[in-house]
Amino acid sequence: MPIKQAYRLQNYLRTNATYDVTAPPGHSLKGLEFFLETTHRGTSEQFASTFALMARTLGLPSRVVVGFRPWQASGGVYHVKSGHVMAWAEIKFDKLGWRPFYPTPGRGGAKDDHDVASSAIKESEELEGEFTQGTVNQPEPGQQPTAGDKPSAGPPLWVIVPAAGAGILVVYAGTAMVLPWWRRRARRTVAGAERRVLGAWWQTCDDLGLKGEQALTAEDVVARHPADISAHLRPLADISNFVRYAPDAVAHEAADAAWRHSDAVRQAVRARTPLKTRLRKRLLLR
């Protein structure tokens, strides 16, 4: 029964740890582990955060709330000081909504005098009493502590940073794999036979690692490479030179032939290049 689990958890923390206003602040995962396993002492921040975290492991929707205790009025005015700040936990139950729990034990045997506003603790105790008698009825709404909801602590930084880094690497690797394919496809399907021929030539220069060497002529490119590559590079260079001087006379058949030669050059280059080198160039977007 969820409410039974919540009260057992509250009682466990009240009886197995000590309230200590001098305990170091913080509610990181490591800090809460240190509180539970080593010091067994903490402020209401550690008690409330631990309660909310453990409640979530039980499947109970929980949150940490930060507010203050009203103390006593002076001249009709409540003076709130830093020592009046407190934290408690809330759990959401079907048909009851969010109900407060106060896992922080009292000081010197006092019953929660440091951590709860009187009306709120009465409401919690009434609900607990009704539960122990076997029935749970929604209590009459009472005055709640002035509070601002504080979401329970999210994943710790040591989990977020590696996850974010892994996500960036996945996106980068996906881009590195897709971008060359997309660029080659765009050059192959561009409108106009003459532009398709030039696209085939530029793609071949990229495949040969000549990107950026704009001053090379087609003959220079052919002369740089061995026979198995130049056998297809030569006819591609001839078609490319023809397009540069007579672009209007280029037929689609010439563009198709240019891309056949470009594909053949690419296969020859791949056969000569070790897999690790190809992967490194791809991941560096070269």
Description of the molecule:
This protein has 286 residues and is an alpha+beta fold. It has helices at residues 2-16, 29-39, 44-57, 118-132, 157-189, 193-207, 218-223, 227-245, 252-272, 275-283; strands at residues 18-19, 41-42, 62-68, 73-74, 77-78, 85-93, 97-101, 147-150. It folds into two domains: 2-154, C8orf32 fold (Roll); 158-283, no CATH class. Helix 6 (193-207) runs antiparallel to helix 8 and helix 8 (227-245) runs antiparallel to helix 9. The longest helix has 33 residues, at 157-189. The protein is rod-shaped and about 100 Å long. 28% of the residues are buried.
Mean pLDDT: 76
Tell me the number of strands. 8
How far the N terminus sits from the C terminus, by CA atoms, comes to: 61 Å
Structural category is alpha+beta
Whole-angstrom Rg: 36 Å
Helix coverage percent of residues?
55-70%
Strand content: 5-15%
What topology emerges from the helices and strands here?
Elements: H1 2-16, E1 18-19, H2 29-39, E2 41-42, H3 44-57, E3 62-68, E4 73-74, E5 77-78, E6 85-93, E7 97-101, H4 118-132, E8 147-150, H5 157-189, H6 193-207, H7 218-223, H8 227-245, H9 252-272, H10 275-283
Parallel strand pairs: 1-2
Antiparallel strand pairs: 3-6, 3-8, 4-5, 6-7
Helix pairs in contact: 1-3, 5-6, 6-8, 6-9, 8-9
Brief overview:
By secondary structure, this protein is an alpha+beta fold. Helix content is 55%, strand content 12%. The strands form 3 sheets. The chain has a 4-stranded antiparallel sheet with strand order 7-6-3-8, sandwiched between helices. It has a two-stranded parallel sheet with strand order 1-2.
